[in-house]
Recover the amino acids of this structure.
């Protein structure tokens, strides 16, 4: 059977541990993605090194090098076209994309978020879950729409919040779940396209 891999670009801003898991997953012949490039809005993003060492094309396109957000996003679109990207996976990309950009990629762009959406959109999700004394916390993979962290949820992973939990311990345990959930969900989504 001939399996066709979808060219997927991953956007990061920093560490890139979720990106690493996607790159590793895509090494399997049966996985439906080929990571065609890793794009960062920060030249110093730690994840860029891992991607490059693993033979994935990388590109840093910083906002400060452009007059406005639209010019920045136009440069990003150009790079995606050069890579032939057909799908985008946001993985710790810390920039809110414009409605025009999001609409262009709608149905072909997903994100991983460290909370059980629709709870705790935005930042500081672990601290907010602890402050609310939630018994459960987790992560979500969702479609990207113009509303920040507001697109339909595709999959979630849940963990119990422990009695002696700190923000750091909770973040670390959720991140472990993110690493499994994102690669698995991207595979399912691409197979269903
Ligand atoms: C993850 O917790 C992800 O859910 C959030 O930002 C973090 C990025 O971590 N959007 P990493 O760069 O993938 O290690």
């Amino acid at each position: 059977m001939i399996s066709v891999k979808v060219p997927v670009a991953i956007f990061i801003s920093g560490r890139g541990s979720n990106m690493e898991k996607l790159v590793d997953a895509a090494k399997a012949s049966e996985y439906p993605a080929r990571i065609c490039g890793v794009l960062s809005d920060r030249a110093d993003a730690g994840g860029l090194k891992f991607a490059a060492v693993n033979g994935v094309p990388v590109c840093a396109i910083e906002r400060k090098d452009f007059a406005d957000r639209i010019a920045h996003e136009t440069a990003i679109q150009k790079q995606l076209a050069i890579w032939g990207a057909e799908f985008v996976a946001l993985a710790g990309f810390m920039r809110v994309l414009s409605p025009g950009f999001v609409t262009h990629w709608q149905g072909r762009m997903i994100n991983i978020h460290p909370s059980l959406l629709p709870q705790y959109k935005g930042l500081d999700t672990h601290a907010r879950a602890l402050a609310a004394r939630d018994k459960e916390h987790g992560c979500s993979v969702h479609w990207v729409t113009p509303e920040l962290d507001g697109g339909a949820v595709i999959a979630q992973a849940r963990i119990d919040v422990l009695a002696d939990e700190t923000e750091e311990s909770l973040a670390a345990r959720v991140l472990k779940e993110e690493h499994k959930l994102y690669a698995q969900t991207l595979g399912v989504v691409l197979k269903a396209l």
Summary: The first helix runs from residue 17 to 25. The chain is about 35% helix and 20% strand. The mean pLDDT is 97. The pocket of 5-O-phosphono-beta-D-ribofuranosylamine is lined by residues 12, 14-19, 91-92, 112-114, 175, 178 (CB under 6 Å).
